[in-house]
Design brief:
325 residues; alpha/beta; 7-stranded parallel sheet; 5-stranded parallel sheet; 34% helix
Length: 325
Amino acid sequence: MSLPKVYVGLPIQEAGLELLRGKVEFKIWKEDGPPSREVLFKELEGADGLISGLPFRVDGELMDVSPKLKVVSNYAVGYDNIDVPAATKRGILITNTPDVLTAATADLALLLILATARRAFEANEFMRSGKWKTWGPDLLVGMEVSGSTIGIIGMGKIGGAVARRAFGFGMKIIYYSEERRLDIEESCGAKFVSMEELLKESDIVTLHCLLNEQTRNMFGEAQFQMMKKTAIFINTARGAIVDQKALYKACSEKWIWAAGLDVYEAEPVPLDDPILKLTNVTTLPHIASASNVSRNGMARKAAINLLEALQGNRPPDLVNPEAWK
C-alpha cells in the first residue's frame, strides 16, 4: 500500500520532518523564499496533503490541482494566506499552530515596546556611526515604560501573555477585545474599555488580533489621530491590519511619537519604502516566533495536524470544523 503524498512548501525544522518519515511520502522546498505558483502546481499534483506557510497563497485554484487533497497544515497561527471558505467548500481541512509561539511573540512585543520607547536601535546606530562624542542630559532621551498605560487590542492568548509581561513592568493595562478576559482583569488589574477610550488613554498601543475581513485596514488615519502625540504604536500581528501609508504619516508628521513593527503590508518590505527611513520607527523582519522552542513546536504541530487528518482523525488544531465529516 502506497504512502500518502505530501508537499512541504517551506523548509520546516527537523523536529517536524522526523514525524513525517515513514508515514508519508514527502518532498520539501528547501530554498530561500516561497515556491513559485508553477512549482506549487507541479508538486501538488496528486498530493494528499500540504504544509503551507505565510509566504505563499493557498487558494481554490491551487487546491483544485489535486482532487485527493485532504488537508492544508499551515505553519503559523494566522491563516490569512489560505482561502478557508474555498477549502471548506471542497472538504479540505485547514489547521494552524497555536499556543507554541505565544511566549516568543509576547517576548518580542515587549522587546519592541522597550526598544522603541528607549530608542535602542536609534542609539545603536548613533554609536556605531561615530556620532557619540560625549554624554549629555538630552542625549537620546526616551519614554519611561514603567508606570505607563498600555492598550492591548486583542486579548487572546498572545495578548494575555503581553498583559502579564506588562504587569511585571508596572504598567497600567487597558484592553479592547471581542471577549472580556476576566482572568487577566483579576491577575493583572486589566480594564476592559472601548476602542476609542483605549486609543485616547494609552501611552503604548499594541496589536494582537487576527487578520480577517473585520480587522483588515482597521487602523488608519482616524485611529492614529485619536492617539496621544507622546504614544507609541506596536504591531506584531499582521501588517494588513494597518494602513501603512497612514502609519507613515502619523510617525513622520508626529501625530504619534514612535512605532515598533515586526509585520508590514508587503513582506519583505521594499528598500525604498519610506517607513524604513524614519528614525522613530523600529523595524524587525517578521521574527516574532523565531525562537528555537517556538519554531520546533510549530514544526511538530504542523506535522501532527497533517498526519492526524491523513489518518482520518480530527486534527487537534482544526480551523474549519465545518469541513470535518
